[in-house]
Amino acid sequence: MATQEQDFLALVKQINLLDMNLTLIDWDSHTNLPQDGASFRGELTGYISGQELALRTGTAMGQFLDYFAAHPTALDEKGQQVLRLVKKDYDLNHDIPAEDYAAYQQVVSDAQQVWEQARVAQDFSLLQPYLEKIVAFKKQFIPYWKRGQATDYDVLLDQFEPGMTVVQLDPIMATLKAGIQKIQRTLATRGTQPRTDFMSRAVPEAVQERLVRATVSRLGYDFKKGNLSRSTHPFTVALNRGDARITNRYGVHDFQMALLGGIHEAGHGLYMQNFNPDYDYTPLADAPSMGLHESQSLFNEIFIGRNAAFWQGEYGRFQQTTGDIFADIDEATFYQGFMATKPTMIRTEADPLTYPLHIVVRYELEKALFNGDTTVAELPALWRQKYQEYLGITPANDTEGILQDIHWAGGDLGYFPTYLLGQIYAAQFYHTMSQALPVTDILASGDYSQITQWRKDNIHWFGASLTPQALIKQVSGEALNPQYWLDWMTATFENAYQVPK
Amino acid sequence: MATQEQDFLALVKQINLLDMNLTLIDWDSHTNLPQDGASFRGELTGYISGQELALRTGTAMGQFLDYFAAHPTALDEKGQQVLRLVKKDYDLNHDIPAEDYAAYQQVVSDAQQVWEQARVAQDFSLLQPYLEKIVAFKKQFIPYWKRGQATDYDVLLDQFEPGMTVVQLDPIMATLKAGIQKIQRTLATRGTQPRTDFMSRAVPEAVQERLVRATVSRLGYDFKKGNLSRSTHPFTVALNRGDARITNRYGVHDFQMALLGGIHEAGHGLYMQNFNPDYDYTPLADAPSMGLHESQSLFNEIFIGRNAAFWQGEYGRFQQTTGDIFADIDEATFYQGFMATKPTMIRTEADPLTYPLHIVVRYELEKALFNGDTTVAELPALWRQKYQEYLGITPANDTEGILQDIHWAGGDLGYFPTYLLGQIYAAQFYHTMSQALPVTDILASGDYSQITQWRKDNIHWFGASLTPQALIKQVSGEALNPQYWLDWMTATFENAYQVPK
C-alpha cells in the first residue's frame, strides 16, 4: 500500500510534468510558433496553466500539507525538502481571493501589451495607470504573503531571492556604488583606453553560431542534454536535466553579443543539466533562487568569458574559426577591446562593471514604491535623475529610459536585484574555486573539465535542496560578501586598461 | 445559463486542447528532443495521453452521449457532426476491458522496440511472437468494435477509412494490378528509357531546402501558419489550422527525394491550414479519413509534382536555384529522368506507378490474416512470393522485405490501403478540377493560386464534417473510381517515355 509520502510525491510529480509541459510550450512559442498559431497557443497555455495551478493549490495539496504538519516524521529528508518548497508555493497562491488574482493577471496581461505601445510612443504615461494598478494589487496581496518579513519590499524580494532583505541589500548597493566609481576613476586617470574599432567587424552569423557551439561545449554544456536554437531574445529553459535548452541571437556586426550571450545561457543550461537525479520530478530540480540561477550564467559570461586567462587559450581557436577577419589583431589587443567599459543607457547592453549601477537605480525605485512614499507617476523623473547621478547619462526619452525593461509591466517587482546578486554570488564562487583549483592554468589550457566538475559537485548537484544562504555558506564558508566582486573587477579592469601596478 | 450543447462543446474543446498538446510533444520529439530527454518525455506523453483518454471515454462524455441519444434535437448541425465523430471514438475505446487494452498497448510498445532489433538482425522470427499477440488482440477486440461490417477486416479498414470494405477494395486492387501491368508492358515495348544519370548529381542540402521552401510556398503552403523543420522521416502535424508544421530530410545526391518529400508534406499542411474556422477546437478540424488526408499530399506530390506542365513552369526556376548543376540538361530530358519508373524493394522509395503494387501485397496479406486462414508465421514466405509475382523482385532478407514498415508492429493493421486510396482520390479530384479549370495552363504559368483556391473551396474547408463517401460524391459527382488514376498514369508515363501515339 502506498504511503502518504508516496501519494504526496505522486501529486508533486503530476505538477512537475505539467510544468515540463508548460516549459516546452513556452520554448516553442519563442522559437517555432507560426504567427497564426498565436491565439490557439493562448488557449492551450491557459488551459494547461489552469490544470497546473489547480493541482498546486487544490484540496488534495491542502490535505497533504495539513497531514504532514501534524505528522512531521511521515516524510524522509527529501520529502521534507520538497514539502518546504511546495508549502511556500501553496501559501503564496492559496490565500489570495481567486477573483482578485484573476483581475491582477488580467492587468498584467494588458500591461505587457500596453508596454509595447508605450515603447513605440516613447511615452510612459500610457503605461502609468496599468503600473499603478499592478502596484496597488501587490500592496493588497503583501499582507497575505507576509511571513515575518520586516518591510513590504522584503516580501517581494523573498519571492525571487528567498531570505533576501533590504537590510542586507542596502550596504551591498552602497559598497558597489562606491567601489565602481573608484575603479572608473582609476581607469580614467591611470588606464589606457583600449582600441575597439575591430569589435564591430562583420562575422557571418553561421560562423558566430559555430563559435558558440564549440565554446559552450568546451565549457561543459552537453548537447545530449539540450540544444541551441534561435530566438529574438536569448533564454534558457529546462524541461528536465536531460533537456535543458538554450537559445541565442546573432548580429553580423556584434559577435561579442552572440558569443557572450551564448556562453551566458549555457551557464544556465549547465546548471540545469547537473541536478541530482534523485530530485527528478520534484521542485528540488531547480536553483534555490533566481540570483543563484543567474550566478551560473554570469559565472560563465563574466568570470570565465571575460577572463584574460580564458582568452589566452581561446583566442587562437577564435582566430581559426573566424578565418582572416582578426588576423591583424593580436591577443592582447583583442582582449583589451573585448573589455572596454562605458556607461550605456540600456541595462542589457551594459558591461559587467557598469551593470550593477542599472540595478541600483531600479532597486532604489522599487524600494521607494513599497517602503517609501514615491508614486508611479514620479518614477520617470527619478529614473532620469538617478541615471545622471550614477551613470552620468540621461535618457533622451522613456523608451531608452524607464520603458526599456518589461519586468514591471509583467508584475515582476523585486526581481531586478537578483541579476546583481548573481554577479556577487558568482564572484564569491570563483574566489572559492580559485583556492581549490589552479584556475588560471586550467583556463589557459582550454580543457575546462575540472572547473565544470567543481561547479557540479559544489553547486549544481544540490538543486533547490538548500536555501540560498545555506548554499553560499556551504560552498564558501561565509555569507554573501560583495568584496570578492569588487576585487575581481578591480584587478580585471586594471589589467585590461593596463593600469601601472 | 449554458446549454447541454455548450457544455458538450466545452468538453470537446478540452480534448482538442490536449490533442494539440500531444501533437506539439510528438513534433518536438521528432525534431528537437535531446537524447537524454527521452525517458522524461515518455513520462510526459504517458501522463497527458492518460488525461486525454480519460476525457474521451469518461463518465461525463458517456452522459452527454446518452443525453443526446435521448434528445437528438438538442444539437444544431455542427453539434451533430461533432457528436457523430465523438461517439464513434467513444464506442471504439469504451467497450474494450481496460486491462486488455493496457496489455495490448504494452505489446505494441514492446513490438516496436523488437522491430528495430529484428531489422538489425534481418530476422522476422524475432518479431513474430509479438505480431501474433497483436493479431490475437485485434481478433479479440473486433467483436467490440463491429457495427454491422460484413467481415472482420472491414472493421479494421473502417478505423482508418470509414466505410471502406473489401467488397469495394477487391475490384479496385484487381483493376490497378492489371492496369499497371499494361502500362509497364507499353513502356517496355514502345517507350524510350529515360536518361537518369543526372538525377544523383550533388545538390547542397541548403539549396534543396531553399528549393522546397520556395516551391511549397507557391503551391499555397502558408509559412504564417506553419514551419519547415528537419527530421529523420518527413511528416506533417497540425496543432490547429494556424500551426500546421511540416518536416523534411535531405540527401546531397537525392534532390528528388527532398523536393517531392517536401511537396508531399506541404499537401498535408495545406489541407490542415484551410479548415473552416467554425470547426476550431473540434474533431471536425481534420480530414474525414486517412485516405483523404493522403489524397492532398499525393495530389501535390504526384498530380502536380510529376506533371509535365508543372515542370514547364518550374524548371527555369529550378535551374536558377541550383546554379550550374543542371545547366547541360534541358527541360524535356530533366522531366523524362524525373519520371523514370522501376520496381523497388522498398515501398517508400517507389515511384507512383509501381507504388500501388506494394499496397496490393500488404492488403492481400492483412485480409488473409483476418478474413482467411493465413498465420503470422506464413507471412514472410507469402511476402516474397507476392513481391516476385507483382513486382518481379524478391527481397534478399526480411529487413528489405516484410520488416521494412513499422506499421504492423505499431498495431496499424488495415492502414496500408489508405495510401493507395489517397492516390485514387487525388486522381479523381484532379480530373474534376480539370473540368472546372484550365489546369495545364495554370500549372505552366507558375501561379498556382487558382488551384489552391479550388482545393480549399471544394475539399479542405469541409474538414471531417462529411464522410469520405459524401465528400468524393459532392466533389466529383460519383463514387470512388480508380479509372481516373489509370488514365492519368497511362497518359503521363506514355508521355514521359515518349511512346508514339
From TrEMBL, chains A, B:
**GO annotations under biological process?**
proteolysis
Report the EC number(s), separated by commas if there are several: 3.4.17.19
Cofactor annotation comment: Binds 1 zinc ion per subunit.
* Protein family per UniProt: Belongs to the peptidase M32 family.
Q: Which residues bind Zn(2+)?
A: 264, 268, 294
Q: Which reaction does it catalyse?
A: Release of a C-terminal amino acid with broad specificity, except for -Pro
Biological function:
Broad specificity carboxypetidase that releases amino acids sequentially from the C-terminus, including neutral, aromatic, polar and basic residues.
Name what cofactor the protein needs: Zn(2+)
Catalytic residues, per the record, are 265
> Gene3D superfamilies, from UniProt?
1.10.1370.30
GO terms for molecular function, please?
metal ion binding; metallocarboxypeptidase activity
Name of the featured protein: Metal-dependent carboxypeptidase
Q: Which InterPro entries match?
A: Peptidase_M32_Taq
| Signal peptide (UniProt feature, chain positions) | none
Q: What keywords tag this UniProt record?
A: Carboxypeptidase, Hydrolase, Metal-binding, Metalloprotease, Protease, Zinc
